[in-house]
Specification:
Helix content: under 10%
Number of domains: 11
Number of strands: 96
Number of helices: 0
Structural class: mainly beta
Shape: flat
Strand content: over 45%
Radius of gyration: 62 Å
Distance between the termini: 23 Å
């Protein structure tokens, strides 16, 4: 036969493969190596996943996806562990070897022993030890391959070879001259419907002919027969050339499936109670709740204390049937309710109504003793004590959540105070009753509607009484209150208003009473009860007039104002004037003024302003009405000199659209000029110059001014900072950097990793990304800062194809790139078998497994490694092996 080979050419690209992190999934297969006898099995178990794919000798075993596999065939078993989107081969395979069961025969297969003695030597083959049987009964001590048979019967043997054993393929039937006899067992039996069988066994021969109801059963010559029909079974026993009828028959009947039912079919029990279910039709039972077997329940009755659907399996002898119905059991919640009110009181001879909730009927108790005949929700309690109730709802009962305490309340007693009094016209007085928690008030025997509190505010004369209430009980107050009326006093205060200077006083006078209470701004003035009051403070004054037992406010109030002490200042507090000039001083706070120079009054000067032409200390007295006071400050006036000063620096440069600061001296304010043109709004000592040109100043000091002594020439240089293109470097490999050639000096920061931070063209050696700033100083002194970013390239990849042909090119499947260390690199074939693994950098798979070249195919690899940048990489992919 000719063989043809085809070469598949693939074009591969090398790239970084990124996959789901499956590195945490692992597992194995146990046992790893085992041997079983033919016809037996071993249970293999895999770990590590939620589902599995089993393989035998690299081929998928269909339908086997659980963690266990019953292995019956020899070979190498492997498994793919699956978890989510990940599929990882187990860390090992399992090798299963099958040892064939021993086979052999007994010879001779037949023999005969004459009556009176003799023996036949039987020989078995195929094993290294044996167990001999006569008529299926083990012959003790006989383990060799030969046996001297001295009795008629059927001889059989179990052949043993190592750990495996099997029956010899034949038996040896040894007969004697007499007619064989034997029996059938069992003599009677019953078969359950639905495929049940019963085994009949005959004795006494080496072959048999079986009959059912006298008709031969074709092909049945063994001593055992499994029957599935009722009838009368008999057998003809053959021994050598002799035959004889078994001494009995076996009568087999067909039993009916047991039937029965559960009662009741529906039941309800109260919460915390139970209900009894009864089954019929069997001698034992298996109970189920919602399809789940109830362990240990095999009797015809079942006490149920949980809701659910109950079924039963009926057992009668060896037959099993299902109950014809199910029983649905539900639970009724215990009734809940309470008694209201929980606390109350009853007056002697009265009653209070208690109400229970939550049921359809009730049993009431007083101090624990049942109240006969009381079954309604409402109870009229006429005795003090602790009342409780049992709530009934259908067949369920429960105690009320609370009890009700009923107490006796005595008739309340109390009095009214004051017993007598006077109410002033237009005013009120308060009556107070005691002894209850609510009241009914009466005036001259007529109830006052809506008045139920312990206090009563009255404005009319009369006789007042009260009914005292405590809970549901009531009684009259012990006394009445007799109230009379009186007119209110009236009067006024004079003068109606006034004003006083600080330290002075005025007298106020009230009329209309016999005594008075004086108030200032609403606050009582203590110990002032006369009609006249001397006041020294500003405020609003009022008075309460007293006449007999009545009081009333005076008809007016008096506003007393305090004449304000004039206050003011002289501005400016300090002043200077240029020679030949004057300083204008201004006083405030009055209607007229007196001016002083060095403490001497200046005659004729009483206006608010004054032109000071002499140096010295100026003061003023401020006048307002009848009051006067000195101004709060003085003003010191001096003669100023003409200011002088300079601008610094003497010259300046503006760099790259920036600015420079010029500073003037010698004054308090300035006028700046650029090329002899005033710069509007610039009056401070400093100026931020943004344009080139000639800068000058006019210096001011107070009211005097003078020119600056110099002119500053400002020039401009157009230079600004920039960002260079990013520089890509390899880890710890020197890479050149270059700054613009525009300066006389350079300074790189940070200096880390640089060959010379003061060079225009240093080199950088680093293992991480860096951002550098270079400060460049130009010939004219301008300083500009440029920036450049240095990034590190760190790539790890595995080729998508390799050609292990020993030509020195692409011979190994291995990870390459910026590797610091490898935790694991594993390669698997398509059946999950591990082909190669390593944790060494530069080590790789050569396409061989156990020295054998592997076929061209796609192989799955998994890599866990650390890059030179210190980051952990977990990737996987497929690579094609090409030959």
């Amino acid at each position: 036969m000719k063989q043809f080979y085809f070469l598949l050419l693939f074009v591969f690209t090398t790239h970084l493969l990124v996959a789901q992190d499956c590195g945490t999934i692992s597992g194995d297969v146990t046992p790893a190596n085992t041997t079983i006898c033919e016809g037996n099995s071993v249970l293999l178990t895999a770990t590590g996943g939620s589902s599995y794919e089993w393989h035998l000798n690299g081929m998928v075993i269909d339908g086997e996806t659980t963690s266990t596999l019953s292995a019956t065939l020899p070979g190498t078993y492997s498994v793919i562990i699956k978890e989510g989107e990940c599929a990882v081969p187990a860390s090992n395979t399992a090798s299963v070897n099958v040892t064939p069961n021993p086979t052999g025969t007994i010879s001779p297969a037949t023999g005969s022993i004459c009556a009176g003695g003799g023996a036949v030597t039987l020989t078995a083959t195929g094993g290294d030890s044996y167990t001999w049987y006569l008529n299926n009964v083990e012959i003790p001590g006989q383990t060799s391959n030969t046996l001297s048979a001295t009795q008629a019967g059927t001889y059989s043997a179990i052949i043993r070879q190592g750990d495996c054993s099997a029956a010899a393929s034949n038996t040896a039937n040894i007969t004697s001259s007499p007619t064989p006899t034997g029996t059938i067992s069992p003599a009677t039996g019953s078969i359950c419907p639905g495929g049940g069988t019963i085994r009949l066994t005959a004795t006494g021969g080496d072959t048999y002919t079986w009959y059912r109801n006298g008709v031969e059963i074709a092909g049945e010559t063994d001593r055992r027969i499994d029957v599935s029909e009722g009838g009368s079974y008999s057998v003809l026993i053959h021994q050598g050339n002799c035959s004889g009828q078994a001494s009995n028959t076996s009568e087999i009947t067909e039993a009916a499936s047991p039937t029965g039912a559960i009662t009741p079919a529906a039941a309800t029990f109260c919460e915390g109670g139970s209900v009894m279910l009864n089954a019929t039709g069997g001698d034992s039972y298996r109970w189920f709740r919602d399809g789940n077997r109830i362990n240990g329940q095999t009797g015809e009755t079942l006490s149920v204390n949980r809701e659910g659907t109950y079924t039963v399996e009926i057992n009668q002898g060896d037959c099993v049937g299902v109950g014809t119905n199910s029983a649905v059991v539900t639970m009724t919640a215990r009734p809940e309710g309470n008694i209201a009110p929980a606390f109350t009181s009853v007056c002697a001879g009265g009653a209070v109504e208690l109400t229970a909730s939550g049921g359809t009927s009730y049993t009431w108790y007083l101090n624990g003793a049942e109240i006969a005949g009381q079954t309604g929700a409402v109870l009229n309690a006429t005795q003090a004590g602790l009342y409780s109730a049992t709530i009934h709802d259908g067949d369920c009962s429960a105690a009320a959540e609370n009890s009700s305490l009923v107490t006796f309340t005595p008739v309340p007693v109390g009095n009214i105070s004051p017993a007598t009094g006077t109410v002033c016209e237009g005013q009120t007085t308060i009556l107070t009753a005691t002894g209850g928690n609510s009241y009914a008030w009466f005036k001259n025997g007529v109830e006052i509607a809506g008045e139920t509190r312990s206090t009563l505010e009255i404005s009319e004369a009369g006789t007042y009484t009260a009914t005292i209430k405590q809970g549901v009980c009531s009684g009259p107050a012990l006394n009445a209150a007799v109230i009379t009326s009186a007119p209110l006093p009236s009067g006024s205060i004079t003068p109606l208003s006034d004003s006083i200077c600080p330290g002075a006083s005025t007298v106020l006078t009230a009329t209309g009473g016999t005594s008075y209470t004086w108030f200032r701004n609403g606050n009582e003035i203590r110990r002032e009860t006369g009609a006249a009051l001397t006041v020294t403070q500003a405020g609003t004054y009022t008075a309460t007039i007293r006449q007999g037992g009545c009081t009333a406010p005076a008809s007016n109030s008096v506003a007393i104002t305090l004449a304000t002490v004039p206050s003011g200042t002289i501005t400016p507090a300090t002043a200077s004037f240029c020679p030949g000039g004057a300083a204008v001083l201004t006083a405030s706070g009055g209607a007229s003024y007196s001016w002083f120079l060095n403490g001497v009054v200046i005659a004729g000067q009483n206006g608010p302003t004054f032109n000071a032409i002499l140096p010295g200390k100026y003061t003023a007295v401020i006048k307002q009405g009848e009051c006067s006071a000195p101004a709060a400050n003085s003003s010191t006036v001096t003669v100023a000199t003409t200011p002088t000063g300079i601008i610094s620096p003497a010259s300046a440069i503006i760099c790259g659209g920036g600015s420079t600061v010029l500073t003037a001296t010698g004054g308090t304010s300035y006028t700046w000029l650029l090329n002899d043109v005033v710069i509007e709004g610039q009056e401070s000592a400093t100026l931020t110059a943004t344009q080139p040109g000639d800068y000058k100043i006019i210096i001011r000091n107070g009211t005097c001014e003078g020119p600056g002594s110099n002119t500053v020439k400002v020039t401009a240089e157009d230079v600004v900072g920039t960002t260079y293109p990013t520089v890509t470097a390899r880890i710890d490999v020197a890479t050149p950097l270059e700054a613009r050639n525009i300066g006389v000096s350079y300074e790189w920061t940070p200096p880390t990793g640089l060959s010379n931070p003061l060079s225009r063209t240093p080199t950088v050696t680093t293992n991480s990304d860096k951002l550098y700033i270079v400060k460049i100083t130009t010939q004219s002194g301008c300083v500009v800062s440029d920036t450049v970013a240095v990034t590190i390239s760190s790539t790890i990849f595995v080729a998508t194809g390799f050609t292990p042909n020993s030509n020195g090119k692409n011979d190994l499947l291995r990870p390459v790139g910026a590797l610091k260390s490898i935790e694991s690199f594993r390669v698997f074939n398509r059946w999950g078998q591990l082909m190669f693994q390593t944790n060494q950098i530069n080590a790789g798979w050569d396409g061989k497994f156990k020295g054998e070249l592997q076929r061209p195919d796609a192989y799955t690899w998994y890599l866990i490694a650390t890059g030179t940048d210190g980051k952990t990489v977990k990737i996987s992919g497929k690579t094609y092996l090409i030959r």
